[in-house]
Structures are given as structure tokens and as C-alpha cells.
Amino acid sequence: MSDPVIIAGAGLGGLVAARGLQEKGIPVKVFERAPELGEVGAGISLAPNATRVLIALGLREMMEEIANSPDAMSRKHHETGDLIGIDASPEYEAKYGAPYWQAHRADFHDVLARAVRANDPDAIALNKDVVSFDADDAGVTVHFADGTSAKGSVLIGCDGLKSVLRDQLWDPGQPHYLGFVAYRGLTPVDQLPEGLITPAAASGQGPGTHFTRYLVRQGTIVNYVGFARRDDWIDDGWHVTASVDEVLQSFEGWNDEFRLIIKNTANGRCHKWGMFGRPPMPQWGKGRVTLLGDAAHPMLPFLGQGVSMAIEDGIVLARAIAEHGQTAEALARYEAVRLPRANEIVERSAARGERTFRPAGAKVNMQEGLPPDIFSYNAVTVPV
């Protein structure tokens, strides 16, 4: 039996890649630094370009148990709450051949982990922090913080924005603050006035602020995320506790719907984090080592495509290795397909952020910069 493909990081992109490789009959080993699997308690939106990949991996039934397609995607005036625009979500599958799903991020992560382990109960190794690697023409060896090591055919760095593997490959320096703070929380629907959450998904735009909310877990919880421009970010961490009062202060003057959602955040536990990133890279990998997801192309969330890009990466990587073997050539083919697409979305996400957060008084069109061609991309069939 050949050495496995080694994946560093059991996040969403890494697990999609693992499942894709398993479906092609390719041995895979996922090494995760955390002592147990889990994801931050938050919602996630998956556009058709991502859901068609999950369906191709045989996960539709499992996803439909934990995800929902909102009845509509709406826009509301931030001060009055008046409906100013609406798109009917059920048309997504008819238009693009795949649905639009929203789910709790932890539930989605659990689906992927269970799917990978169903193929191989030992595919995911926990408490294994990859700190470095050696690579040559014959394969790769990864070294862990506990002093042990493992051998593989190729190595995929799925270790996020603070990627250790990216640092060893390219020494790119520290990520930089991009000028936005995000606030996130979960609010039980039964703590809100009846009929308040209509339609199921809505967003609003205020001066220097943006707020999105939608339902998860069979419509019992409102997931929300609010963005605000901030000149600096001084907290040390990606997910820092924020008080309800702090979030309310950031959305002062907004209508009662949005503010009631914030006020009733479960257990009063809100989180905040600064948005950090890096410039798009002209190259991701070298030889038998490459990157995937945020390790390769971190992006601002203003197109809602960060996770979707990692999902696309995962299936294209699996297909390239299936077609070209567990080789440096396969990784080069993967990069040639994915780098232009991902870097374009990085730039378009940043551009939409600039348009969305125009100065007070500027004309704002919330749909500007969200062209549907993004959804038409098919990572399942794109030539590799």
C-alpha cells in the first residue's frame, strides 16, 4: 500500500479533501492539532458552487438533516426595518443545479468528520500539531510538536490563516489587519417576538456597518454576524468575548428587529474578531507540498465564499490526485486550476467590502459586487 496523502488540519476544507480522496480510493491521513474535533458555534452559508460538491461526495442526505434552504434572501432598511429587496431562494437549484444551504457550522463539521470516519475510522488523528516538514522526490515527512513524525506521499496544508506550512514554504510574514471587526452570536427564536424573523434570512446596511441574520437548526436559532469598520484591532485572539452592550453600541440607531436579536443572544455570549488577511499569492506549493483554503487564500467574508472556496479546493485536489497520481504533478495541476479562481474571489470580496462600507451618505447597493457567475462554477467537472 502506498503512503497516504497527509492533510494538516481537520477543518472544513481539509475534511472535504479527505472525503474526496477516499471516494477515489486514495489513502489519506488527517492530522489535527486540537485534542478533540469541533467548530466554533456559528452559522454558515453554502452557495450552489459549494453544495454541488457536497452532493457529488454523497452527502446530500446528511446535509439535509442539518441544513435548510431559506425561503428568501432579503434586505431591510437598517433604521426602519422596511423590506427593500428580496430574492427567492428556492430558485437556486433550478438555476444552478444545486441548492443554497444554511447550517450551524459545528453541525456541518460533524457531518464531514462522520463521513470521513465512515470510510476509515482511523483517518483522523487528534492532538497532532504539525510543526514542520521535510520533502524530497520520494515523499514527505511531517514532524509533530510531540516529537513524533509521519510519512506520506504528498502534504496538504489546511492549517488556516496562521498556517505553519505556509510559513515554512514561503515565510510570508504576519497577516495584517484589514480594517473590520466582526461580531457573532446565536439567539433562540423562542426568545423573540413571534413573527419577527420574516423572511428567514435578512441583512441590513448602515453607515460603516453591516448585519446579516438567518435561521439554523430547524429554524430554532437565529445566527447573526455584524461587521463594523474599526481603525485598529488590539485584542490578542481570533475569537474574543464581547458584551451584548458592546455589540448594541456598534449598531446604535438600528431598528428593533436587529437590536432585539442582539439583546437576546444566548447566555449573553457574543464573540468578536478582527478581520486579518494576506495579499493573494502567485504560487501556493512547492513539489510535493501545497496549501488549501485559508492557508492559501484568506479572504474577507463579504461574498460569503470563504468556506465555499475551500470546498472547491478540496474536490479539485482529490480529482487531480486521482488523475495524476500522488505526485508533485498532481499538486501543480490542482494549483493551476484553483489559484486564479480563488485569487479572483479574494479580490472581489475585498472590493465588495469597500463598496459596502462606503462613508455615511454614500449611495449603497447591497447587491453590487455579488454577481451570480460565482455560483455557476463547477469544481466537480472543471478540467484538471
Beta content comes to: 25-35%
Structural class: alpha/beta
| H/E series | EHEEHHEEEHEHEEEEEHEEEEEHHEEHHH
Radius of gyration: 21 Å
CATH class of the largest domain: Alpha Beta
Question: Can you characterise this structure?
Answer:
The chain is an alpha/beta fold and 384 residues long. It folds into 2 domains: 5-71 and 103-174 and 278-376, FAD/NAD(P)-binding domain, CATH 3.50.50; 176-277, D-Amino Acid Oxidase, Chain A, domain 2, CATH 3.30.9.30. 32% of the residues lie in helices and 26% in strands. It has helices at 12-23, 48-56, 60-66, 91-96, 105-119, 164-170, 244-250, 256-263, 306-324, 328-356, 373-376, and strands at residues 5-8, 28-31, 43-46, 67-68, 73-77, 83-87, 101-104, 124-125, 130-136, 139-144, 149-152, 155-157, 176-188, 201-206, 209-216, 221-229, 240-242, 270-277, 289-291. Strand 15 and strand 16 (221-229) form a beta hairpin. It is globular, with a radius of gyration of 21 Å. The two termini are 25 Å apart. The model is unreliable at 362-370 (pLDDT under 50).
